């Protein structure tokens, strides 16, 4: 038996089992190594009639190559080649041949991965679309928060530059609406009830009553919090002060 036709397999006990690609009969340990099972599992299969070894003597039991193939074919329901009895040494899992040189397939895969970062559909550029990483960096978003934003405002997506991209116009609009919904851009044009209470020394009921009486425009945002339009409030407040008897008395006293 030549060395070129042998494959060394490590058994579970650490010993080395030589298996030849031309070998017709195998010992129990060799069968277990070929099938990737333990000896205990091998004997269980024999006891259940899945394998039929031949006992040559009290200490020698062998299983034929055809018996092993027949057992596997019966389990899979299809005909197998005999490649399980030989090991392909042409290439390893890292895309290198037996001499340690990278094969052409591995080179092509690496080039394809690099090229994927530069590929994009027609009309998709870094000027028109954000990548996920760019959105998270620009708006201080986490990926989970970005996903929520995308689902809430139905932002379209497209695969480009090796990642998921989103139209800049749609993202900017969604972020703006989200900030307004959360009340982060309302401070410039809207009062909160707390601000009115602090500025004018009013109670919560007085604020709401004044807004209802003078038809001050309101809106709900940031968890149904009520906001009052500054322009309406200040205009109606000046009108109310002009009509107030105490204000008139002050004017008469001043004249």
Summarize it.
This protein has helices at residues 28-35, 39-47, 65-76, 104-116, 132-139, 143-153, 168-181, 193-200, 204-213, 230-243, 245-254, and strands at 6-10, 16-20, 25-26, 54-55, 61-64, 129-131, 158-160, 163-167, 190-192, 218-221, 225-229.
Characterise the protein shown here.
The structure is a single chain. The protein has 255 residues and is an alpha+beta fold. The chain has three domains: 83 residues, no CATH class; 53 residues; 61 residues, Orthogonal Bundle (Multidrug-efflux Transporter Regulator, Chain: A, Domain 2). The relative contact order is 0.05. The N terminus is likely disordered. It holds the Pfam family HTH_17. This is Helix-turn-helix domain-containing protein. InterPro entries: HTH_17.
What are the defining features of this structure?
3 domains, alpha+beta, 3-stranded antiparallel beta sheet, 46% helix, Multidrug-efflux Transporter Regulator, Chain: A, Domain 2, Helix-turn-helix domain-containing protein, elongated, 255 residues
Indicate the topology.
Layout (H helix, E strand, L loop, with lengths): L5 E5 L5 E5 L4 E2 L1 H8 L3 H9 L6 E2 L5 E4 H12 L27 H13 L12 E3 H8 L3 H11 L4 E3 L2 E5 H14 L8 E3 H8 L3 H10 L4 E4 L3 E5 H14 L1 H10 L1
């Amino acid at each position: 038996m030549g060395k070129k036709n042998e494959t060394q397999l490590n058994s579970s006990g650490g010993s080395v089992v030589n298996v030849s690609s031309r070998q017709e009969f195998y010992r129990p340990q060799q069968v277990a190594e070929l099938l990737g099972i333990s000896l205990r599992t091998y004997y269980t299969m024999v006891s259940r009639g899945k394998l039929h070894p031949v006992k040559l003597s009290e200490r020698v039991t062998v299983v034929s190559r055809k018996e092993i193939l027949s057992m596997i074919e019966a389990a899979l329901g299809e005909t197998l080649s005999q490649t399980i009895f030989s090991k392909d040494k042409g290439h390893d899992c890292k895309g290198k041949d037996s001499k340690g040189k990278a094969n052409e397939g591995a080179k092509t895969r690496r080039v394809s991965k690099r090229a994927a970062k530069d590929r994009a559909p027609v009309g998709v550029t870094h000027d028109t679309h954000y990548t996920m990483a760019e959105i998270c960096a620009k708006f201080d978003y986490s990926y989970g928060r970005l996903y929520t934003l995308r689902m809430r405002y139905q932002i379209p997506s497209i695969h480009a530059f090796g990642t998921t991209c989103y139209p800049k116009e749609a993202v900017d609009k969604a972020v703006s609406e989200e900030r307004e919904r959360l009340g982060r851009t309302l401070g410039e044009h809207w009062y909160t009830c707390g601000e009115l209470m602090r500025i004018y020394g009013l109670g919560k009921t007085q604020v709401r009553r004044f807004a209802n009486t003078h038809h001050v425009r309101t809106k709900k945002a940031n968890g149904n919090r009520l906001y009052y339009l500054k322009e309406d409030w200040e205009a109606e407040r000046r009108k109310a002060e002009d009509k107030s008897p105490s204000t008139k008395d002050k004017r008469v006293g001043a004249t």
